[in-house]
């Protein structure tokens, strides 16, 4: 079950922070499991729609992989 605090933390995250967590968090990170994982993924997708492809590319390059 997702707590209000967890939901607020996800809501407050910038897309860059979400992408970095998505790429580099260890397997089993609590933000990627169950109800929280669904909420995180949906939130990340919604925030991605708010930036341009050029902004996404710049963020991605800044984070690295």
User: Which regions have little confidence, pLDDT < 50, spanning 5+ residues?
Assistant: none
Number of strands: 0
One letter per element, helices H and strands E, the order comes to HHHH
- Largest β-sheet summary: none
Average of pLDDT: 96
Q: Number of helical segments?
A: 4
Helix content: 55-70%
Number of domains: 1
Distance between the termini: 31 Å
- Structural class, judged by helices and strands? mainly alpha
User: What's the alpha carbon Rg, rounded to whole Å?
Assistant: 12 Å
Give a verbal description of the structure:
By secondary structure, the protein is mainly alpha-helical. It has one domain (4-63). 69% of the residues lie in helices and 0% in strands. The chain has four helices and no strands. Helix 1 runs parallel beside helix 3 (34-48). The radius of gyration is 12 Å and the shape is globular. The N and C termini lie far apart (31 Å). 8% of the residues are buried. The model has no long low-confidence stretch (mean pLDDT 96).
Task: Write a brief structural summary.
This protein has 65 residues and is mainly α. The chain contains four helices and no strands.
Helix and strand layout, with pairings?
Elements: H1 4-12, H2 15-24, H3 34-48, H4 53-63
Helix pairs in contact: 1-3
Protein traits:
mainly alpha, 65 residues, single chain, 4 helices
